[in-house]
Amino acid sequence: MAATASLRSDRESPEARRRLAAFLAAASGARAVEIVGLALLEGGAIQQNWGIEADFAGGALAGVQLLVLRADAATGVPSSLSRLEEFAVLQSVFAAGVAVAEPLFSCADPDVFGGPFFVMRRLPGHAFGRIITRDPALDAALSEIAAQLGHELACIQTIFPPHRGLEFLPADSGPLARIVEFRTYLDRHPTPRPVLEWGMRWLETHLPEPLSSVLCHRDFRTGNYLLDGARLTGILDWEFAGWGDPDEDIGWFCCKGWRFARLDREAGGIAARDDFYRGYETGSGRRLDPDRIRFWEVFANVRWAIIALQQSDRVLIGGERSLSTAITARRATECEFELLLLLDPDGNPS
Amino acid sequence: MRDLPTGLDLLELGRRLLLDDIAPLLPEARQRDIHLIATSIAIVAREAANADAPLRKMGELLRQFYPPRPDPLPASGESEHEELLRRFALDLRRGAFETSGSRERAARAILWRLTILKLGEGNPQFLAANGVK
User: Fold this and answer.
1) Cα(B55)–Cα(B75) distance, rounded to whole angstroms?
2) Which domains, from first to last, does chain A contain?
C-alpha cells in the first residue's frame, strides 16, 4: 500500500510536474512547457496512464496538447515489457499504419517521473468493455467495428522478425515452452490447480503445426481499444507484445473472459466470429483454421488464469493494496470453467 | 450463543446500504469501486455460510477417487485434502488417467464439481449466466 500511494503522490507533486515540464520542453525543442493538467487515468491494471494537458511554447508540439504518459505501477507481472521496450513496439506499429496513438518521447531517467516512461498523443474515446458491450447505440456498428479490429490485427502481423528496432524481443519459443513456464509458476503457487493442469496437458498433446512468427499484441481484446462513439480510434496497451503465432491474438480476442456483458457475442462480446474473421482474412489474405483457433482459445484461457493468479501475487507478495487487483485472482476459476466447457462440453453436470 | 442479528445478516444489510444508499451519492468514477466492495462482501458471506463444506465435499470426492495407499506417504505438513488435490493435479499433468476411459471420466467429473463448488462461492452469477443452477 505504502509503495503504491507513495509513488502516486510523488508523481502528483509540484516538483514532479516541474521535472516533467522540463523533460517535455527538452524533448520537443520548446522554449518552455506548462503542465496545465496531470491526472491518473482510469484503467491500466499493471501500468499507470497519466493524462497530461500541456502548453508548449514553440518547438515541434507548439500549442496546447493532450498527451498520455505511461509509467510503471509500483508492482507488475513478470511477462510485461519495460516501458522503453513498449515505446519501441508502439513506434513500430505506428509506422506500420496500425491505429495507435502517435508515440512521441521516451525517458529512461528515473529521476524525472519515478521510473522510465514514455509519452504519446492522447486519442479520443473510451475503452470500457462493460459499456461497449452493453450500449444499444453501438449495436448497429459493432459488426463493422469487429471487422475493423480484424483488419487492424492483420496490419499488426505485417511486422515479423527480424525487425529493426525490435531486436530486444525474444524469439518465439512456441506454445510448449510457455506451457513449461506456466507449470513452473504453478509449482511455486500455494494452491494446486487441477483444471489448469488438465487444460495444459490437452494443449501439450494437441500442438498445431507452427506458422511463421509475427508480432503478437498478446492482450488484443475488448477493453484495450478505444471507441469514440462508433469510431475505432486506437489499440492500447502493448506491454505484452512479442513474436508469436498469428492465431494467438485471435484466440485471445474471442476468449470468453473478454466478452464482458455479452457472452453470446463470441468475438470480444461485440459481434459474431465471422465479422471479426472477415476483417482479418481480408486484411491478411490468410484463411483461418478453426482447429488452430480452438487451440489458441484454450491456450488463452490457461494464460488468462495464470495472469489472474499473478495479479493476486501482486497483493499477496508484492504489497499492492488494490481491491480490483486482488479480486482478479478469482477470475482464474472462471477460466477453468470455460476450459471445461471447451474441452468437455458433454461433461457439464447441470 | 451469539447475539442476533447474525454477522451474516449484518453483512448483507451493510452490502445493501452500500449499493442502494451510498453508491448513488458517489460519482460515476467510484461506482466500480463500490461494486467491487459489494462483490467482496458477498463472497465473504457465502464463504462464511458454507464454512468448510465445499472443502469437505472435495476431500470426499478425492478420497473416493484415490483408494487409500497401503504405504502412506510421510507427512508433508499439508492436510489430507491438500495432499490429494496436489496429487490429482500432478497426475493430470502427467496424463495418468488417459489410458483408462472410466478413470478419465471420473477425473473430469471431479474437475467439474471442484470448479462449480468454487464458483458457487466466488461468482454464482457467472454460473447462472452459463446455465448452471
Assistant:
1) 20
2) 2-121 (3.30.200.20), 129-343 (3.90.1200.10)
